[in-house]
Amino acid sequence: MTWLIVGGAGYVGGHTVARLHAAGRPVVVLDDLSAGLAERVPDGVPLVRASMHDTAAVAQAMIEHGVTGVMQFAALKSVPESVSEPVRYYRENVGGLVSLLSAMTSVGVGRIVYSSSAAVYSSGPVAALPRWIARRSRYRSSTSASAMARWAARRSSAVAAW
Ligand SMILES: NC(=O)c1ccc[n+]([C@@H]2O[C@H](COP(=O)([O-])OP(=O)(O)OC[C@H]3O[C@@H](n4cnc5c(N)ncnc54)[C@H](O)[C@@H]3O)[C@@H](O)[C@H]2O)c1
Fold first, then answer.
1. 102 phi and psi, to 5 degrees?
2. pLDDT digits over 51-97, tens only?
3. DSSP assignment, residue 127?
4. Residue 150 class from Cβ within 10 Å (0-12 exposed, 13-18 middle, 19+ buried)?
5. 78 alpha carbon to ligand 1 midpoint, in Å?
6. pLDDT digit string (tens) for 101-159?
7. All domains of the chain, ordered by start, with CATH?
8. Which of 4, 43, 46, 48 has CB 3.0 to 4.6 Å from 67, enough for a Cys bridge?
9. Atom of ligand 1 nearest to the CA of 52
10. Index of the ligand 1 atom closest to the CA of residue 92
11. How far apart are CA 122 and CA 41, in angstroms?
12. Distance from C-alpha of 126 to C-alpha of 80, rounded to nearest angstrom
């Protein structure tokens, strides 16, 4: 199974790529390097420099590298920014996921692992807050965006693993 690691030059994606590569799993990175570093991508791992919003480029990368699953780590992630600039965050994070799902559907790739955020559970002192507390969070809009994206993934041919 070959994984396309979207955002694989970033912090979480970079660690994931390093672990998968060290374990001998075939991986390909797709990253626009807007916040990532090319040097995080280990030697021998192909790096496709493209935006996840470029659906055709994502689909082409999947075909060229025989991709069978996607791990999605590309996102804007600042909680305060997401509250002050929700439209930009929806466009990047929800729109980016829709583009990825479109590319996957077009080439028949049916598995995705999506990196969400613990911030959807608010900022209380308890590590794992009940879900109902999340509804009170100022970050609720992003929670809704995540739910919207999850619904879209499940309705598409992709099998979402959240
Ligand atoms: N950092 C954490 O501790 C943490 C914890 C839990 C969840 N997360 C989540 O994991 C995800 C990644 O977080 P991170 O800390 O690795 O962020 P990061 O900024 O280090 O990595 C994001 C990567 O995505 C790339 N990228 C951004 N927009 C892109 C686009 N349009 N097309 C292609 N590539 C694009 C960036 O260049 C970067 O390499 C986020 O959704 C974040 O909420 C992060």
1. -65, -45
2. 999 999 999 999 999 999 999 999 998 888 988 988 999 899 989 99
3. S
4. middle
5. 10
6. 999 999 999 999 988 776 665 565 555 555 655 555 555 555 555 666 666 666 655 44
7. 3-161 (3.40.50.720)
8. 4
9. 32
10. 31
11. 32
12. 20
Which amino acid appears at position 7 of this protein?
A: G
Ligand 1 pocket test: pick from 5, 17, 28, 32 the residue with the most ligand atoms within 8 Å of its Cβ. Answer: 32
For ligand 1, the distance from its centroid to the CA atom of residue 77, given in whole angstroms, is 7
Cα-trace Rg, the chain: 16
63's tokens? 């075909």
Locus of tokens 């909680």: 79
Please tell me the pTM assigned to this model: 0.85
